[in-house]
Give the backbone structure.
Amino acid sequence: MAFLKTTGIAAFKGLIVACLLPLTIARAQPPEANREYALKAVFLYNFCRFIEWPKSAFASPNDPIVIGLIGEDPFGPLLNDAVKGEALRGRTIQIEHYRKPEAIGRCHLLFVGRSEMKRLDQILAAVDGRSVVTVGESDAFLDRGGMIALAAEGNRVRLHINPAMLRAASLDVSSKLLSVAEIKP
Amino acid sequence: MALSLRDLPIKRKLMLVILLTSSFALLLMGSAVITYELVTFRRALAVNIGVLAQIIGSNSTAAVAFDDPKSAREILAALSAEHQITAAAIYDKSGRLFASFPEEVPASEFPKQPGPDGHRFDRAHLVMFQPILQEGTRLGTIYLQADLGVMYSRFTVYGALILIVSACSFLAAMSLSARFQRRISRPILELAEVATAVSERHDYSVRGTKHGADEIGQLTEAFNQMLTTIDESNALLSASEERLRLALEGSEAANHAKDNFLAILSHELRTPLTPVLATVAMLESDESIPSHIHHELEVLQRNIEVEARLIDDLLDVTGITRGKLELHRHVVDVRSLLEHTMQNYCASTAAKKNLRVSMEVTASETCVLGDSSRLTQVFWNLLQNACKFTPEAGAIDIRVYNEPSAWNGEGSRPELIVEVCDNGIGIDAKTLPRIFNAFEQGERSRSTNFGGLGLGLAISRAIVELHGGSISATSDGMDKGTKLFVRLNTALRLIGDGTQKRSTPSHDLIPTRSLRILLVEDHPDTAAQLSRLLERAGHEVTCAGSVREAQETASQNRTSAFDILISDLGLPDGSGHDLMRDLSRNHPIPGIALSGYGMDEDIQNSIAAGFSRHMTKPVDWQELKGAIQKVARDAHAANDDGA
């Protein structure tokens, strides 16, 4: 290690930092952010409880419910922890990651992180007409055609929902869910 | 109270029983209702609260799932409509207090951790924990606390209600039982009244009223039947009593008739004996008659005397049975009575049968208070019997002695015992107890041998008993002789008492003197015989056949022309008593009444009419002679005194 320190140590250092950055960023998130995403992970799972999909959304009765993530993954292991071993109505829950809107496959719930807002139109177009619950992180997301927004307010996360969009996608939302959410617009 | 319960009137008892029973039933009913209500209410409360918890839980799933305490609080706030819920809370999955109600209560007042699922009652609350489930997944826990005050206030109302109902029921039961108990108590009380009437008034004709066919009805019927039976047997009893009374009256009447018949019969039998005796006496004193005829006259006289005695006995018996035997008591020396009886009535009989008669007197007290003629009759009977039942050359021993009285009181006197003992035929043990009964005289065969009616001992017993003494007999058996005992109470001898002189026959000692005699007798034979006897005795006799004739004779001759009146009582135109009263009105004249009737009553009547003596027919001539002398002398003495 002394060798490394003395010869091209800065370059190496930069490489490592570059390589580890995404991880480091995630790891380096403050505890508030950590808690926010822990909550959001649980919320994503809980949406599966309060929303019913049309039968056509599934290939078979045992088909898993698929939660899709597009772009950067802000959850780390938190989402996986929240859904691991859980089953709803005889269905397991799977998590899939998509890099690009074109890559979006068969999924039932799609989380669109803040980073993907610039590609939002493409993403929404990709899932249009497919009974996919789109979950974003801001009211802007709703304004642009999203269904549910998870808005962080202090150390809490508030739900904003556009029920019309959900209904348009043939999705049945429990009134209970609506009762705890802020209806937009 | 408990002690006197059995003495309570049956009305009260019935009411008490009914009220106690209904009160107990009410109490039981009330407690059953309350217990049931309590159990039901608790269960219903638990179910209600459970449902409420489920609703709240179900409504709050999203709030818990999406971490929305505000919504949860809003949902809980809806419970303010439920008054019995005093507190509610929601805990999240990790057991943290998530939301609570009412909001003003601080969190520290709520349980820190949810308790086990289910409900429990503490003193004032129902506490419940229930899971908040979403499609089988537990999202959290709901906590509810319900106040039981509502329940308690409800039970206060229940209790009051039951009390009021009980009180009303009690009053209703009281008034109803007061009415209905009469159905039971009234027949019993009526029956009791009937029973009282029966026992107090002995009225067996009353009957209880039957009100129904129940046990009391049966009792009434049985009671009535009993009364009927008693009534009938009473009627039977009184009927048979009546029959008995009639029979008794009949037999008394028959007995009376018999006694009357005997009295009349003996009188009628006796009357003809008087002239016969008088004639025999006259003939005996006639010295011109040869001696062999004299002997036959004696036989005649003796037999007539026996017959007269028999008739006298018969009269005595009828007198005894009619209770008409009276005693003229004075102090009598039994010793001299016995000696007199032996000499005058027994000596000749004994001499004829060659009997040895001895008398041994060891008694120092020989006086008794009694009727001398009646006692003489007793001794005569005893001696006659002894003579009669003792064979030829037998022996009769008379012993007179004293024994201390059985009564040992102050001034008690010794008893005098006269024992007549013979060695004759005796009496067998079977007959011995009956010999003092009238008309009993040993065996029939014997009575035929020995003659007599068997009245002597019965008369003797009656006389001795009237004297307060007793008579008894012993015998060692047939042919072993008989002993008869007469026990009498002794009396003090009176100094200067004339008893001895009176009881001793004295007529022979008195010199006769010629008297003018008015003889009234309707029976011609008797009159002729008597006047002849009297004339022969040296008297001057005037005869009359009726009251009227006697009165005429007396008025012709002046009453004072006669020294003495001898009159029959039964005259054709009146009674001798009337004649005596009539004559003595003009001039006092002593009189002797002659009558077939010899009862004490007859004697009393004669004395009351003015007669000095009453003699029973047939008249013993010797006796009449003595009586005439005595009466005349007494009258003379009285006249002398009067002069």
Summary: Residues 1-8, 14-28 of chain A have pLDDT under 50 and may be disordered.
